[in-house]
Design a protein that fits this description.
Chain A: Keywords: Cell membrane, Membrane, Transmembrane, Transmembrane helix, Transport. The complex is a heterodimer of chains A (about 325) and B (about 350). By secondary structure, chain A is an all-alpha fold. Helix content of chain A is about 75%, strand content about 0%. With about 350 residues, chain B is of the alpha+beta class. The chains are: A mainly alpha (about 325), B alpha+beta (about 350).
Chain lengths: ~325, ~350
Amino acid sequence: MAEEHTTAAGQSVEETFIEAKEAQRIRPDDGRWIRLFDHFRREWQIYAMLLPTIIWFLVFLYKPMYGLQIAFKDYSIFRGVAGSPWIGFEHFQTLFTNDQFLRAVGNTIKISALNLLFGFPAPIILALMFNEVLHATYKRTAQTIVYLPHFISSVIIAGIVITAFSPTAGIVNTIIGWFGLDPVYFLTQPQWFRPIFVGTGIWQEAGFGSIVFLAAIAGVNPSLYESAVVDGANRWQMMWKITIPSIMPTILIMLIIRIGNVMEVSFELVILLYQPSTYETADVVNTWIYRQGLQSGQYDLAAAGGLFNAVVAFVLVMTANTLSRRFSRTSLW
Amino acid sequence: MSGVNLSGIVKSYGAMQVVHGIDLTVAEKEFVVLVGPSGCGKSTTLRMIAGLEEITAGDLTIHERRVNRVAPKDRDVAMVFQNYALYPHLNVADNMAFGLRIRKMPKDEIKQTIDDVAEILGLTNYLDRRPADLSGGQRQRVAMGRAIVRHPKVFLFDEPLSNLDAKLRTQMRAEIKRLHNRLGVTSVYVTHDQVEAMTLADRIVVMNDGAIEQVGTPMELFNNPANTFVAGFLGSPPMNQMKGQLTENGALVGGTEIKVDGPTGSHAGRNVIVGIRPEHVTLTPGEGTSALPIALDLVEPLGSEALLHAHAGKEPLVFKADTLGDINHLNNVAEVHVPASLVKLFDAETGRALNLGA
């Protein structure tokens, strides 16, 4: 280790200090387990701080995985998970021959695609617009207003939407009435569900989502803009040629995370807004699982649907991460 | 014809004035270095020339055109920033072409210009690399390349070498000097490093607290500093400044009378600051020198020479001496010699240089 100290002469003080600490704590004659124990004894505070997170993961994410096996069993609550007989992929065969499930998969993909197409760029555009606002008070007020919907419960959001689109007293139909048109009961018509759902999502989350991008914009080196000003770039050119490329790693990371959640369409909002007349376009995998599992008591079939959802999400996020790493040098891991 | 002319330039942020009426003329093709401690207003002055800061009062002309209200892009200046300001998502060629594309230069002309400048700067093999894949020196060259391709009337450098290590800084300093000699473009260069200022400048502007202390060639400033600030800023180590008093025949320093240049009789009793450059102090007597007894504190060997820290009476004195391959003989130094012609005198109250002959 003494040699390492000598070679560390060109390193930063911090690196040298860390090496010195490591040299102090790891004795070459000690066994691996003794060193590990030594390490835990010295750094126990860090592991103590990590413990609640590990417990949370174990209790809420890993322990439930035990129950996933019912997707491959003829599950009975009386026989329990372990006592129920294995039936292989029978539930998956049922799923893929079930029209309602296939429709739910199709709806999930369509709603997610719309969300990705319109909902994902919305906070980026909003952040870019905020970045161009020079009046500080106006900027702060506008930001507060667009952040607010995020903090409202989905139930209230759904209430607002139902009221706004009400055929009798809703503001939308009132405006339509000004043009002499008949009121439309939007929330009972399948063709209107997706636009209303995606629009509501944007209204609720775009403002709050813009915070990440605003933070990324704040991190752009100001001298890049000054250099561009001297080079003759206008604000539009600076936005396209400096701001957007500079925040592209953040955009890609957020996109990967978003793709990982493609199958997780906002379950509560769908439940609150849909009704049997709009199932055709509104019923998504999660609502189908909810109805099959909790309302009809087919837990095993619902578990198979949930597992399918998770596998698709896993494949999507892996693919997105690999593509992003290959083409843009940015990735989650 | 002047390259850049600053007349009564003032910069204020609200009620706080940070640059107090600067008057400076930079001749065409001249290399002028603004030097001074942090917060002295040198970068603000440069940014006003670039158009990145508004001018509160005064007139700025570039090649005889008043540009106070002219947008930066129309001033025909190019700037090299302290942290290079390279676009991380663009490769070297695209970084250099950025300004040209904004100005809608034809593609083939851009390529030709980039190739020519890359050749000059030794960047030809790195044109497709991104800034993250370059060393500090290469990034600095790209930053200069981006300025050069524009063929501006004025180059502005804002501490361009401060992020480099000492060795690379020396190397890049020489490259900037060679480049200036080759291109002959009016240049204004900001630094807090007096060595950079001395080596690069045709003329140095020493700034302090938002005002110019002295303007002159490096040797003028080194040999005849206008005040104690300039004397203490230029030179490494800087000029020794010892409290003293003028006498009939010279100046009293640390209880010892030394000879100075010029008649002191009529000023006898006046408190002064006696300035002696470390390299002007000798260990052996010579013509026109005065002996100054010292108490040696410390010897710092630097190889061929050593820095000796001592006291003359209560006044600290740093000076240089040849080691001749060994520093043992320096440990017993008890007396040094100061040539009268090289002793500088400053008023103890104002810090301004005294000219006894006048």
